[in-house]
């Protein structure tokens, strides 16, 4: 990264994009800290976007708690946070564009239909992740065939044209065959809500984000987002996926599996732990601002 920082990169815009489904936990602070450090190390702008598209999973007031937790750690966005729940018109515009260019189609399948179609192909649900959509409602297969439209899907290229690659700043060269790993994926859900994949791509571009720094649990989504960027004629940002923090049970920390809210009785201590996950071991001494200044120096010189 030292070399990377040495280049004249021009404008840098980074962001942290939490879903307000509960308070931040130790794992989410790692992603927040890394994106803030990287923005500061590049003399860039750091944004916070509240990803509240999945309304049923959002917890009222969690956005404010998250912003307060970030502020307690000295991580304050350069402009007021944007809320995805207020940006439906932009997402609709992107969907319209994808329909007009023949990249999106309506799907009438229920979960049971998809499971059945997979079973007929001898495929069962992987332990983590969703079933690959078998393309039942693709236009070339006759479309909805009288079923009511439920969701909208992006039609991914068939093999061998479905390979998406990117150079992750931390993980190096990455690739995924979209047709076998994911299949045609949902961009507008059956319940009428916008899918994360579409919203994140539209917003990152609209906010001019040049660098996405986020947890490695989201790596698997990146190829879908790169394809959407390509088909919406949007630039692909640089990506850096940070190491995951595992809980005592060896599972990744997440709100879904009951990770504890961050203990902010000592923000420096919380920052120290987050820093350690990023390979920056900086003792908690002095003020939060002093800790952060040291961390920026270290990130600039030694981060991967
Ligand atoms: N909102 C997503 C989450 O909380 C993160 C999105 C992103 O960083 O791309 O998991």
What does this protein look like?
The structure is a single chain. The chain has helices at 2-6, 26-41, 62-72, 88-100, 111-120, 178-181, 196-206, 222-231, 267-277, 288-302; strands at residues 13-16, 45-50, 82-83, 104-107, 151-154, 163-168, 172-177, 185-188, 211-215, 238-242. By secondary structure, the chain is of the alpha/beta class. It has a five-stranded parallel beta sheet with strand order 3-2-1-9-10. The protein has a three-stranded antiparallel beta sheet with strand order 4-5-8. It has a two-stranded antiparallel sheet with strand order 6-7. Helix 8 links the parallel strand 9 and strand 10 (238-242). The longest helix is centred in the N-terminal third of the chain and has 16 residues, at 26-41. It is elongated, with a radius of gyration of 20 Å. The chain starts with a helix and ends with a helix. It binds glutamic acid. Glutamic acid is lined by residues 17-19, 51, 200, 214, 218.
């Amino acid at each position: 990264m030292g070399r990377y920082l040495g280049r004249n990169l021009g404008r840098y815009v980074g962001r942290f994009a939490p879903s307000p489904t509960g308070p931040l936990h130790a794992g989410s602070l790692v992603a927040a800290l890394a994106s803030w450090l990287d923005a500061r190390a590049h003399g860039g702008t750091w944004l916070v976007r509240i990803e509240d598209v999945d309304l049923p999973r959002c917890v009222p007031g969690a956005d404010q708690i998250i912003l307060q937790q970030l502020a307690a750690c000295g991580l304050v966005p350069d402009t007021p946070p944007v809320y995805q729940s207020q940006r439906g018109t932009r997402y609709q515009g992107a969907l319209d564009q994808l329909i007009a260019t023949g990249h999106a189609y309506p799907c009438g399948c229920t979960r049971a239909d998809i499971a059945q179609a997979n079973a007929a192909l001898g495929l069962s649900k992987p332990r983590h992740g969703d079933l690959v959509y078998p393309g039942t409602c693709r236009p070339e297969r006759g479309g909805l065939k009288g079923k009511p439209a439920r969701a909208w899907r992006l039609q991914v290229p068939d093999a061998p044209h479905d390979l998406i690659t990117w150079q992750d700043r931390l993980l190096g060269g990455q690739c995924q065959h979209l047709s076998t790993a994911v299949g045609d994926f949902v961009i507008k859900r059956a319940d009428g809500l916008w899918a994360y994949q579409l919203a994140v791509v539209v917003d990152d571009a609209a906010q001019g984000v040049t660098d996405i720094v986020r947890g490695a649990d989201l790596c698997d989504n990146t190829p879908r987002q790169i394809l959407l960027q390509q088909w919406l004629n949007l630039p692909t940002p640089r990506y850096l996926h940070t190491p995951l923090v595992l809980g005592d049970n060896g599972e990744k920390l997440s709100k879904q599996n009951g990770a504890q809210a961050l203990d902010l009785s000592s923000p420096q201590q919380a920052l120290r732990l987050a820093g350690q996950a990023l390979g920056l071991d900086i003792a908690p001494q002095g003020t939060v601002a002093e800790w952060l200044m040291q961390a920026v120096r270290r990130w600039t010189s030694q981060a991967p």
